[in-house]
């Protein structure tokens, strides 16, 4: 059976190779039969990879420990849900999931553009298939999940241990079940805009169509990459137990980098759609984004930069680096060849304009990308240049990124209200009087409440500024619509958003971003202390009193659980009880321990308690954090999700309009 | 080039320079040298009293902890292999250590070396000796050596 998996992977590889060849020739000759043929090859590779994936899941669910990968990532006692997710808990399965996501995106993209077949789409098909060739090749050569133990170790053929080694307990968590797939969808999804941009370049079909297709296909991966990162943060916060959700670790930065350039792209693409400007720039951004996605995989998998996250390292690191170089060379070549086709159609008029705002936005996002990349790679670069390794840590990233973030927050408020070309002083006054007043009041109030952190005061003031601009935009639009159509205010507001999903959905995303920022700003007021308590002792932090009321010890089949109990009091009244735990997985060879954080969250702050163990005489050690405003990070993520749903919700009138434009009444395309 | 374009170019260059200088100055203020135990031994004299990062592996049975004061002392040696040529370095730390910290853990310490060679750590990061991904088959066999071997 496992041999069947390998065989099917080879078939998928051949189908992909065929799609590359057929797609390329179809792009050059415009032969319809070859285009159709390459599309069928794409369907075939999807089906084959999907079967492999299901087959591997079947091995996990049926405890086939003669399969090496299953034996080392799963075990009999694992709950069924985690047997399913164990597939992507380690390298081989992750790559297969990656390949499946790639196959799905490719299939979806190919079928959606079916109605507008052309050389550009044919090249794009070939490029997406080429990526699949790379991933399947790596899986087959280095990381085949279908290898038997007897292929890897010197044991008799068919040997199977009685139980698997089991998933690392840190990964047995609901967030970790969905974090990798969502993050991969984000990473991999960028292959589609990349391929369509390249297809447009190679085929010289650089009309407006490609940029629309590319933009739509960028939004979804952009969103998923963002959500994936926040889920990773959530996992770190509740499982790893170091009191925070973001540590500027290379692995985190690796996912942030393409997200930053993609954010720049989804903003600057609007200038191209409206004004026909910045064409070269946009292509560069989308190419960079995809290259950074692969580069991120390289960073996480090669071990070139030391990280607290110890992912498995393997010889595939250099291959990924080579792949990044190949992508850069390939795309730079075609970009330089086609520069003359990418002339700007309009000129820039004034810095106080929508264009000016977008330009500054792009510079800042690129600056942020550069800073994060520089900080992440600095140890490697300094070692190469000076011979000694010099590292930068969170202080570096905070010093650089806080000012950049604050200016971006300011632009979030200003940008959408600036007029195209040039904004008059009267317009500025009309739009920005109330937001500025709101910001000033907030700043004064913050100082009045005793906040002395300059960045925090600026941040809260800017957040108010942006919220007021967003509210006034909704209000102004609803009033204008209501007076022209005689609709009641709320109906007008609802229809207004329905008719301009992109614009108002975008504002909701911005609002979610403001909430994220409020959460981030809370970091300025974090407090941490380490205490050792005997039963009956209590201690105070930020107005909370915690009483140590003892502990329970339980020995289960897999782990020993020490559960401590702390009573939480504020001003003499009991708020509740916290149960921080420590688990010892005594059956594992490494006796791994994990801590179960106890968190008490409200909108104001998190009380976050870790039990760190105890001494011979029964003194228990706790680390206690008070982290203000953390909940706003998760709320912001939900609001952004809502905004994204509004933005990408299919718009019937838009489809009809585009069909008319395209002159193809039969089109049945879905709008992503 | 029109006046407008020149102004634009100047603006872009100015903002870019701002960002670059922000990055460069932040690197200067916040960077730290990073050594393994053997590397520090080779360049000991240059870095006494300076804040550095030190990577090493905890020497087995060297951890001494005082639970009352949370004072901790242990020795580290070269993380790559067990290089007999580096003498273990004594480390002192005060605070609660993560559960990943134990014999053989790889640690990354942040702190200063004293004149007598002791490293006083202000921060301690420990990598679990096992990875997120599980280890070799040898360990699996060791774990299950008592179990009857089944064939599928």
List the helices and strands and how they pair.
The complex is a heterodimer of chains A (672) and B (152).
Chain A: H1 2-29, H2 32-61, H3 68-73, H4 80-85, H5 91-112, H6 119-141, H7 149-152, E1 159-160, H8 174-189, H9 191-203, H10 208-240, H11 250-275, H12 279-302, H13 316-337, H14 354-386, E2 389-391, H15 394-414, H16 425-448, H17 454-485, H18 489-499, H19 501-521, E3 527-533, E4 538-541, E5 544-555, E6 560-570, E7 573-578, E8 581-584, E9 593-596, E10 598-601, E11 605-614, E12 620-628, H20 631-648, H21 652-662
Helix pairs in contact in A: 1-2, 1-6, 2-5, 2-6, 5-6, 5-8, 6-9, 8-10, 9-10, 9-12, 10-11, 10-20, 11-12, 11-14, 12-13, 14-15, 15-17, 16-17, 17-18, 17-19, 18-19, 19-20
Chain B: H1 3-30, E1 32-36, H2 37-42, E2 52-58, E3 64-66, E4 71-77, E5 89-94, E6 106-113, E7 119-127, H3 137-143, E8 150-151
Parallel strand pairs in B: 1-2, 5-7
Antiparallel strand pairs in B: 2-4, 2-6, 3-4, 4-5, 6-7
> Strand-and-helix sequence of chain B, N→C?
HEHEEEEEEHE
Share of β-strand residues of chain B: 25-35%
Biggest protein-protein interface?
A-B, 80 and 58 residues
Instruction: Find the structural class of chain A using helix and strand composition.
Output: alpha+beta
Number of helical stretches of at least 4 residues of chain B: 3
- Domain module count of chain B: 2
Please summarize the sheet with the most strands of chain A.
6 strands, antiparallel
The CATH topology of the domain at 1-171 in chain A: Four Helix Bundle (Hemerythrin (Met), subunit A)
The CATH topology label of the largest domain in chain B is OB fold (Dihydrolipoamide Acetyltransferase, E2P)
Helical stretch tally of chain A: 21
Into which percentage range does the β-strand content of chain A fall? 5-15%
| Alpha carbon gyration radius of chain B | 24 Å
Shape of chain B: elongated
Number of strands of chain A: 12
Mean pLDDT of chain A: 88
Helix content of chain B: 25-40%
- CATH class categorisation of the domain at 1-171 in chain A: Mainly Alpha
Query: Which strand order do you get reading across the main beta sheet of chain B?
Result: 2-4-5-7-6
For the secondary structure, the number of strands of chain B is 8
Gap from first CA to last CA of chain B: 77 Å
